[in-house]
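To assess whether ligand presence alters the predicted conformation, the chain was also submitted together with S-adenosylmethionine. Input:
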Amino acid sequence: METPGRHRPVLLQETLGFLRNGPGLYLDATLGEAGHARALLEAEPEARLLGCDRDPAAVAHARGLLATLGARVIVEQASFRQLPEIHRRHGGEPFAGALFDLGLSSRQLDDPERGMSFMAEGPLDLRMDPGSGTPAAEALKRVEERELAEVLRRHGEVPRAAHLARAISGAARAGRLETTSALVATVERCLGGRAHPRRLAQVFQALRRWVNEEAEELEAALSWLPAAMRPGGVVVTIAFHSLEDRTIKQALRGIQAAPRRLPPLPTSRPAEGPWETLTRHVVTPTSVERASNPRSRSARLRAFRRRTS
Ligand SMILES: C[S@@+](CC[C@H](N)C(=O)[O-])C[C@H]1O[C@@H](n2cnc3c(N)ncnc32)[C@H](O)[C@@H]1O
């Protein structure tokens, strides 16, 4: 049985297998409940950690959990876009390893006040940091229908996005979309019956990614990483849906959107990017982990090493 609110670190042994890289400074950019961070610091006695999370409740909780490690750990509230500034402020030592375990912690998912889940009644908020940005209910009152349809398509791959966008923005403007259950009811009315949980999950995911600007956050972090890692430093990412995984794969494998109209230069080999891929194929949880922690089901781990030259 899962304990509500308690987060179990996903792909823990696999993460440590790649991330452990000897003494030095490590970054955990998604500290959450510090499960991965604590295990890393136990396994690597000479490792130090800069642990960050945008969620102030996660930061307070993790500070308590890591307090016994004293000066080996610095915990800061920061979103990915603030990492360069935080890193600089703490001396800018290049990282030996960095972890991005994306998505939500169980604590966030299970807290009805966050409005993250279609399974619990709560305000339609969806922010990871309740102190910044705009709650989903407010943002939906202002968004253009066409933009909302694009959000549903781009961030949730939601079918019939235009149709749903009209219904959702109509309900929001009429002041009928303040809670998670009101959103569920609007989606179901629009689709003409009980919506499949998968469809509801896609809608909630799309709105959450939009409200938290998750795509922009991730892209900012990935473009900063080459400058922040030491040569030989390892980055481990854990994504929970294909959109995120694709962004990571493309950024860290150096896959560029092809300039289609230009023919390839005859003698050039593709330029080597700063990363060497350590995971030829994506790593997924074993059937044992999936059975004991259903939330691990869609996890996809990738690891990359900063080239030494
Ligand atoms: C899956 S949990 C991490 C769990 C953690 N590895 C553990 O073992 O407890 C993801 C965490 O990342 C944080 N997060 C997600 N996107 C973020 C961003 N752009 N900037 C900072 N933190 C982010 C969330 O607030 C959440 O606490």
